[in-house]
Design a protein that fits this description.
alpha/beta, Rossmann fold, 12% strand, single chain, binds adenosine-3'-5'-diphosphate, 5-stranded parallel beta sheet, Sulfotransferase_dom
Length: 325
C-alpha cells in the first residue's frame, strides 16, 4: 500500500480458523506516510478493515456538512451516534427505529467488512442522505485526506481507559470470538499497545493536538452519563441545531441504557447473530450494550492494576482519565 507502511503482521491465535478470522484477518501494525503526521506513532488494526485503504479511506470524499464522531472502541460511541443522529433528524425517535444506527450513522472503518459479508453497495457511504454522520475509531493520522481541507465538524469522545479495558475485553471475547486470552493478558495488550486500534493514549491525545482545527467538540463518556441533558444541549449547539427542553427529555428517554439495550436498531443483535454464525464456535455472546456504568473496572481490577493503569496514563498527560478538564 502506497500511503501506509505495514510494520508488522500478528497472526491470530485462533486454533480452528473460522469465517470470523477469514473476514477480519490478522492484526497489523501500520504507519502513515503522510508527512503531516510524521511523528505520530504506528497503530494496530484488524487487517480486514484495511482492504482498499486508499480508495475507501484515504481518498474518501468528504463534505462540509458531514459530522464525524470519533472515539476509541468502547468509549460510548454508539450512544453518541444515536444522539447525534436524532439531533440532525428532527428528534424523530420513530424514524430512528426504522434502520440500524450503524447504517444511519455509518461505522466508517467497518464498512469494508459489511461490504464483504453483507453485500452492501460499495458506494453506499457516498450516497448517504446529507448531512451524513460517520462514526470511526480511526486514529487521527488515518482519517481521509479531505478532512484536512474540507474541515467538517468532528466530535471526539473518550472514556477512562480502565473501563474501556474491561469493556473491550468482553467485546473481543464474547462478540467477536477473538482469541483474547485472560483478562490480565488483555490488560497487558492495552498497556503495551497490542490490541485493536491501540495505542490508546496516543489515540486520545493526538485528537487533542490537531493543528488548526476549530471544528471539534471534545466529550467524555463520564460527563455524558453524569449530565446527559447538558451534553445533549452542548452537542446540539455545536451542530447549530435548536433544541427545546421537551426534545432534550425525549432524547434522554430514548437513549436510556435499558432502552438502547432492548432496541434492535441500537443493540447490534443482528451483527452478533452474524458473528455467531461466522465463528461457529457455540460460545455465548454478551450484549453489545453491556453494563453502561462509570467505574466498572473497580469490580474487575486489583488495586495494583488500577495503579499501573493510572501511572501509565500519567506518563503522557496531566489530563484526568475520562475527563477533559
Ligand atoms: P460497557 O461495556 O462498559 O457497558 P462503544 O459504543 O463506543 O463501543 O461503547 C460501548 C460502551 O458504551 C459499553 O460499555 C456500552 O454498554 C456503553 N453504552 C452503550 N449504550 C449506552 C447507553 N445508552 N447508556 C450507557 N452506556 C451505554
Amino acid at each position: 500500500m502506497e500511503h501506509i507502511e505495514v510494520l508488522e503482521e500478528i497472526k491470530t491465535k485462533i486454533q480452528n480458523p473460522t469465517g470470523m478470522s477469514e473476514v477480519f484477518g490478522d492484526r497489523v501494525i501500520i504507519k502513515t506516510k503522510n508527512p503531516k503526521f510524521k511523528d505520530f506513532p504506528p497503530a494496530m488494526f484488524v487487517k480486514g478493515f484495511l482492504q482498499d485503504y486508499e480508495e475507501r479511506v484515504k481518498n474518501f470524499k468528504v463534505y462540509e456538512d458531514d459530522v464525524w464522531l470519533i472515539g476509541f472502541p468502547r468509549s460510548g460511541t454508539t450512544l453518541m451516534q444515536e444522539i447525534i443522529w436524532l439531533i440532525l433528524n428532527d428528534y424523530d425517535v420513530e424514524k430512528a427505529k426504522s434502520a440500524d444506527t450503524y447504517n444511519r450513522a455509518q461505522w466508517f472503518d467497518f464498512f469494508n467488512v459489511l461490504h464483504k459479508i453483507q453485500g452492501v453497495d460499495a458506494d453506499y457511504m457516498d450516497k448517504m442522505p446529507r448531512p451524513r454522520i460517520f462514526k470511526t475509531h480511526l486514529p487521527v493520522q488515518f482519517l481521509p485526506d479531505q478532512i484536512w481541507t474540507v474541515k467538517p465538524k468532528m466530535i471526539h469522545i473518550h472514556r477512562d481507559v480502565k473501563d474501556v479495558a474491561i469493556s473491550l475485553y468482553h467485546l473481543r471475547k464474547n462478540s467477536f470470538h477473538d482469541d483474547v486470552g485472560t483478562m490480565e493478558e488483555h490488560f497487558e495488550q492495552i498497556l503495551n499497545d497490542r490490541t485493536w486500534y491501540t495505542p490508546y493514549r496516543e489515540h486520545v491525545l493526538n485528537y487533542q493536538r490537531i493543528p488548526d482545527y476549530p471544528n471539534i467538540l471534545y466529550l467524555t463518556y463520564e460527563e455524558l452519563l453524569a449530565d446527559k441533558a447538558g451534553v445533549i444541549k452542548q452537542t446540539a449547539k455545536f451542530l447549530n441545531t435548536p433544541i427545546t427542553e421537551e426534545q432534550v427529555q425525549k432524547l434522554i428517554d430514548h437513549s436510556k441504557f435499558e432502552k438502547m439495550q432492548k432496541n434492535k436498531t441500537t443493540n447490534m443483535q443482528h451483527y452478533h447473530e452474524l458473528f455467531n454464525q461466522l465463528s461457529n464456535d457455540n460460545k455465548p455472546t454478551d450484549n453489545f450494550i453491556r453494563k453502561g456504568i462509570v467505574g466498572d473496572h473497580k469490580n474487575a481490577m486489583s488495586e495494583e492494576t488500577i495503579k499501573r493503569f493510572d501511572e501509565w496514563w500519567a506518563q503522557r498527560t496531566t489530563l484526568k482519565p475520562g475527563y477533559n478538564k
